[in-house]
Amino acid sequence: MKKSLLVLISISSLRFLTACGGGSHPPATHFSVTAPATAPAGAAVSFTVTALDASNRPTTHYSGIAHFTSTDGQAVLPANSMLTNGTGTFSATLKTPGSQIITVTDTLTASITGTSNPINVAAGTASHFSVTAPATAPSGTAVSFTVTALDAFNNMAATYTGTAHFTSTDGQAVLPANSMLTNGTGTFSATLKTPGSQTITATDTVTASITGTSNSINVSAAAATHFSVSAPATATAGTAVSFIVTALDASNRPTTNYSGTAHFTSTDGQAVLPANSMLTNGTGTFSATLKTPGSQTITATDTVTASITGTSNSINVSSAAAATHFSVAAPSVVTIGTAVGFTVTALDASNNVVTSYSGTVHFTSTNDQAVLPANSTLTNGVKKFSATLTDGRWTITATDTLNPSITGTSLPISVVVPPGMVSAREDHTATLLNDGRVLIVGGVHWAKVEGCRRCSLQLSALASAELYDPATGEFTSTGSMSVPRVFHTATLLGNGKVLVAGGDNRYGTIYTTAELYDPATGLFTLIGNMMTTERSGHRATLLENGKVLLAGGASVGGSSSSAEVFDPTTEEFTPTGSMSVGRFFFSATLLNGGRVLVAGGICNDHDRTGVGTSSAELFDPATNTFALTGSMSVERSAHAATLLTSGAVLVTGGATSEGVAATAELFDPVTGTFALTGSMLSPREFHTATRLVDGKVLVTGGFEGNVALSSAELFDPASGSFTSAGNMETERSEHTATLSTNGQVLISGGINNQNGGLSSLATAELFP
């Protein structure tokens, strides 16, 4: 009975314990991880870990060790830790903005794990900038770079609202203006110009510690476009000076990658310059010796690409030494009775002008009858003088009055009587040859008394030709043409030969033929091809392409408006566009740029009583056509037209419906219009107008009514006025005036009123 009661009590006790939980504990199956919903990046946050069983009940008896991980790779997490009574509170620091979680896992049983709720990690305040730029950039080319505001953990601080200021190690850089970032970032453009390693820095305009610098940007140099040549402002003649050549790009930045070779020249013809040289890293220092006093420059030019060039600043070269001798420069030939202009220059041993010379010069001559200047001083080492010599061959000597070793003598000066032509001529041509001689061709000889200019005793036109040599002042015969010609044209061709075309024989025959004069043989050769029509009193103009334009003239049917072009290569004449009206005794002037201005002339028949015109037109070689341009102020024929150095054309005198004109006007090729300028001192027709070396225009002779003139005058383009140039030796009209290579003008032949009538002239004279 006792035994049964004991068993019953044991069973009852077991049941009671089971019902009250006093039995075995359920094991932990997972963790609960509770964390805050938000957290600032870099700030510690607390989170709680609880061990749970399969029914999500805490298991206070859990005695394992928890290990911590996070989706934030930068997170600072607790070390492995045990839970107390199945739970524990820990601290973690999350650094990466965005949604992050923390995971807890049993170190032995990996299935016992748990993950926190998402934690929205917000970036911290900006502490610095990130500046990202390309690794390379061409000089002068815009490149993009990005600036990002970062917190202390290099998270983008999207809440940054400051303003960034930009600087660069490139002092020439073109950088953005101060700018705000959008959501903590911004992309900008900069242009770096200085070759080499450069950086860009962004700095907050208020908090300077918020800053950042880009990676190194390798700026490559642009191609060289020109040189800079830097030289001293002054130098002594004969003493070496240093100068620097630098290759620059289009923005005037040094191009260190230039690898060409520089060639050196100077305005000083005596300079000793470096040999062709390469530059090192785009620059080089060289030495030059300048010898000619005055303002000089040095130029460097790439030996392959001539556009890569540069010229130094002006270098004032001063004389190095005292005067040792004089230079006496005088013309080689002058006409008797004409003052001889000569220049005395004080020179040192290197033939440099000694501007400091202050001595007094005395003059002597091999011509005992010479009228010489009085003793004189020089101005800055140079002075011009005038002397008068008798006929013969003489020299002039200048000597220092205190130091006779300082002396100098001119070359021989030939004083000649006015040269006489081989034949009396008028209406001939005079052409300057390449060797300096003047070819005089054809024309007519007139001899009449008591009457009008052209009424009787007309002699045949001339076929003969002669040469004037300025070296000897003499005329000599040369070969004759195939036929006599008057009112023909003579044009120097590019090959040195002279094209003589058209004209008439004064007995009704107008020529279509042309011939070539060869200075090498002194002979004329008839050209097999003839002109397209007969022409007399026409005009011939050498075009820039080497061809010759022949326009207008009198023909059998009256004045001609036709034109043609002669090609020296094929010796053929080809018709071209016609003028608007027929013309002869007009003017044709080659303009700068290649067009030809045709103006005035007689417009009905081929005698001298026709009606003149004021119209003008332009011939364009590109289209071979004529087009009307502005008209002159008055109709003109037998006038003269002269191209000025400015490109304008001076038109002087001529016959008008009111008589012989003294007026003059200027044609402007830009506007295509004529405008009156100062009038001549005398009315003139059949005169000459020759542009001199100094740009002035010498007007000589011509007819005023039936009277030939001896007067001459000068037109000055600077003032637009005429002044007297004195009188010629004799009255002349229908003569020629040819500018020689020595600057003198040869005035030859023509007709005058000697002996109470009109006579052709065989005389010639020189100006000055």
Protein model, in words:
The protein is mostly beta strands. Among the domains are: 30-122, Sandwich (Immunoglobulin-like); 128-220, Immunoglobulins (Immunoglobulin-like, Sandwich); 226-318, Immunoglobulins (Immunoglobulin-like, Sandwich); 325-415, Sandwich (Immunoglobulin-like), CATH 2.60.40.10; 418-528, Neuraminidase, CATH 2.120.10. The protein is built from 1 helix and 76 strands. Strands 41, 44, 45, 73, 74, 75 and 76 form a 7-stranded antiparallel sheet that branches. A hairpin with a 6-residue loop joins strand 28 and strand 29 (309-311). The longest helix has 18 residues, at 2-19. The radius of gyration is 51 Å and the shape is elongated. The protein starts with a helix and ends with a strand.
Q: What are the main properties of this structure?
A:
5-stranded antiparallel β-sheet, 1 helix, Immunoglobulin-like, 76 strands, disordered N terminus, mainly beta, 768 residues, 46% strand, 7-stranded antiparallel β-sheet
